[in-house]
Structures are given as structure tokens and as C-alpha cells.
């Protein structure tokens, strides 16, 4: 009872020092944790971070922006998809048919990229990407208005992905060719292959002892046996 009385007296002293304290409800630590958790879940559902100014609904990615991200990360494992290099920009225009070789050429694409990007940057953002497409659209479809021309170019790109050309071919190197040419092998390596370059197998790796009794290089091997074993038909015994 004495401890409760002391706590009440301390509360009265604190209330006297801070008159506005009595009007604010005291909240426990668990209640503060619940508020922080509910706030975080609310911001995540809205697609924003804590303290952000996001909208009340998640942001939907358009087909054009999705194609932009696919080409932006092509060939670069560190890319985030938010910015695009000039090389991927040229590939996008080529793969999607924006470059026709007449009204739009590869040079036009490079010029527009340099025009819309910032001077200190080597990439373009999605907004700058749309501006660049608008520049190309007015040149590609001269007979149409600006909005109609942009819509036509957007249709060419929406839903598209980078085209992979195929497997990279191995480049013939003089060094590799020399190392794999069996006709230029010397020493013990030469003995492992025949005249056609085909391997001899075990015969080319292990020394096989010749027990025939003939010296190496003897050309009349086997002729003595033929002379000794001549046929005796018709001869008197």
C-alpha cells in the first residue's frame, strides 16, 4: 500500500509541473509497436515507403514501361531497369521495328538519344525515353499528328522483349590452331597420332616390346619362314 501511495504522490507532482499531461492518455510500449506495424503495412500496400507521398493504390506498370525495363536490363546484371544505356536504346529501336532504314536510321536514333539525355549522364530515364520516342514518331509518321504518331510508335514497342540472336561462334585463333595441329607435334606427343591425325590409343602411350627377334626397320620380315616351308608335292621321298 505504501508503494501505491508513493506512486500516486509522484503522479500528482508530475501533473502539477506539466498541466497538459493529464489531458493526454498514457500509452504502453506494446501499443506504440502496434501503431508502427500498422503504419508500415499501410504504406507497403500503397506502394510507398515510410514518410513517402505515394498514392492510395498500387502503381500499375504499363506495357510500354514493361518493355522499357526488359530492354534496360538486357545484357547487364547490375541494371535496375530504371535507366537505359544507348546500346540498349538502339537495340530496342531495331528489334521493335522503329528503325526502317528510310525515315528512321541508326544515326537518327543515336542523335535523339544524345538530345534527350542529360549532359552528365550516359543513360535515359523512362520519361526521357518517351520524349525520345515522340521525336522519332514525328519523323517516322510525318503524315500524322503528334499524338497519333506517338501512339503508333508505342504500339510497336508495347509487350516486346529483346531478341537474342543465337549462340556466339568461337573465333578461330592462330595460337589455338597451332596447338591442335597434330602434324606439328614433336617428340613423344607425335607418337600418339597417326598420319591422319587420329589418336593411336594405348599404342601411342605405352612402349610395346617387340619379341619377334627382328631389328626395327627390317623389310623382309617373314620371308625366311616361307623359304624353309616350301611345298614338297611331286618330289620323291
Draw up the topology in text.
Elements lengths: L1 H16 L11 H17 L17 H10 L11 E2 H10 L10 H11 L6 E2 L1 H15 L5 H12 L16 H7 L42 H6 L9
Antiparallel strand pairs: 1-2
Helix pairs in contact: 4-5, 5-6, 6-7
Could you characterize the architecture of this molecule?
Mean pLDDT is 76; it is low at 21-26 and 37-57. A two-stranded antiparallel ribbon has the order 1-2. The chain has 237 residues and is an all-alpha fold. It is elongated. 44% of the residues lie in helices and 2% in strands. The termini are far apart.
Shape: elongated
H/E element string?
A: HHHEHHEHHHH
Mean pLDDT: 76
Q: What does the main sheet amount to? A: 2 strands, antiparallel
First-to-last CA distance? 148 Å
Number of helices in the DSSP assignment: 9
* Category from helices, strands and their pairing: mainly alpha
Point out poorly predicted stretches.
Answer: 21-26, 37-57
Which sequence of strands runs across the widest sheet?
1-2
Regarding quaternary structure, how should these chains be classified?
single chain
Percent of residues in beta strands: under 5%
Total strand count, please? 2
**Rounded radius of gyration (Å):** 43 Å
Approximate helicity band: 40-55%
List keywords for this structure.
237 residues; two-stranded antiparallel ribbon; 9 helices; 2 strands; mainly alpha; elongated
